[in-house]
């Protein structure tokens, strides 16, 4: 009997068109906890035989989609699923002169977490993880219907012809088609960008939930895989159903109480969702201290004209927000809402964009709320990760204004939403030279632009590109004034710029300043987040997962007994294993220590005027960080 888990993994070889369903390994489910941790282990077993994987778009890349023990249980927020692979964006395979001592990196392990229904439906269909290898010789899709996993030919209806090329339709059209075919099912699919191997293409689940970062859509495209549809009705088995029910009620009350407490950040989520960070980062509203770190003009600044900001503030997005539209099994926190624009060129219905998306488009000086809403809708349809797209576009706007993209016919400029939308479509459909250039990982892009202007232009070109040297793209907090956040960005296992593995802003605003304290805070955050992802929970889950009630609840669900210490040990194990895998892909201290030149230039206004990333201090933090992690001073896991 499997408790919590289904206990079945499907091994899918697209090259041989074979599916093998095998029992899960209970030891791995215990030691690596679930979703993200288990997937890291299964990726490591594969990569350890063939490393380095030099081309993430080759058939040798493995992509795993699945769930955790808590998924589909009534634990609040237990609807977050996992997807892991070697990312396409985080690579720098050729030598580059602008990084001292450059060492090639071939793509980092990327774990993406998505909400919605898909992962819970996959579990209802009887499978915990789909482990997908190889490349199909013709376009296929996978269906998991009540325990039966099949690779089938992708129907012609899933494709369209664009400028003479056959590519997949928009995500909603694919999902509509498969939902009609399998009533009550749930689908995750690549969109046109993934099909066209755009390095920051995402996967879209349930219309607007995404495995966003790192290029999961491109991995689907590289495997000739259009979509996965799941349907099933099986409920969970509980190790101790009575006790589970009792403890879950108590835990549910705790989560509810945190949402009702106006001093807790959770209290803002049901109304403003993640967008409350817009005001928090800009002017310190919502429990903030000073603000002044909302990225502006390609990370040059963290503050700008407050009247301009008011057009794209927390309140501005509240005005177009509609009803809650939340992940399956979410309770109380309810961060997502629908949104609607009634008139004008961007009229339509969709969902309210998230903070990171809006922040990174404000970084392109886009303040037109309706245009941001519409672009968010388009990204979901075309399968483009909104965050990396924002970073790439901010760089492209600066390159374009400085004359480096003339050859590509670029008319991009800061603040011009309509040109940005045109470019988004050109990237996704790969219809012009500019779209083809910007859809590539950054070091390939830089090499191509430098070839047009000669080596003397390298410094100016690199200055515009914050995603250089295999960067994923910085998130929506300008890190110039926050060395802890810069360390979190710099050491994240899924690549430079990722914000989800550690989050230091509150602590730094609260006075955390010493190098060792910052290093320790980041390392602890990373291990904790590895656990949240591995448990299938949301970042916004408010209860302490290492507390006695939660551990008892987990035991009542699965029969697995953790102590606070043994669970934390699992978090560290997962984080170090991911890092070890990245070491195999070429990552060491040189990658972590790279500071995009732009981030060394001090902010010129706002609460943090005069502050910038300090190389010496950052290196002191890195020394402490590696020591705390038990890695070598070169960032290698022994
Ligand atoms: S809080 Fe938001 S992201 Fe988290 S589970 Fe609920 S709706 Fe999904």
Q: What can be said about this structure in brief?
A:
With 638 residues, the protein is an alpha+beta fold.
Question: Can you give a write-up of this model?
Answer:
By secondary structure, the protein is of the alpha+beta class. The protein is 40% helix and 14% strand. The chain is built from 25 helices and 19 strands. It has a 6-stranded mixed sheet with strand order 2-1-8-3-4-7, sandwiched between helices. It has a 6-stranded mixed sheet with strand order 10-9-16-13-14-15, sandwiched between helices. The protein is globular and about 65 Å long. The mean pLDDT is 96. It binds iron/sulfur cluster (SF4).
Runs in which pLDDT lies below 50 for 5 or more consecutive residues are none
Q: How many H/I helices?
A: 25
Strand content: 5-15%
pLDDT averaged over residues: 96
- What can be said about the biggest beta sheet? 6 strands, mixed
**What shape does the CA trace take?**
globular
Q: How far do the termini sit from each other?
A: 37 Å
* Small ligands present: iron/sulfur cluster
Please bin the fraction of helical residues.
40-55%
Strands across the major sheet, in which order? Answer: 2-1-8-3-4-7
Structural class: alpha+beta
Evaluate the radius of gyration: 23 Å
Number of strands: 19
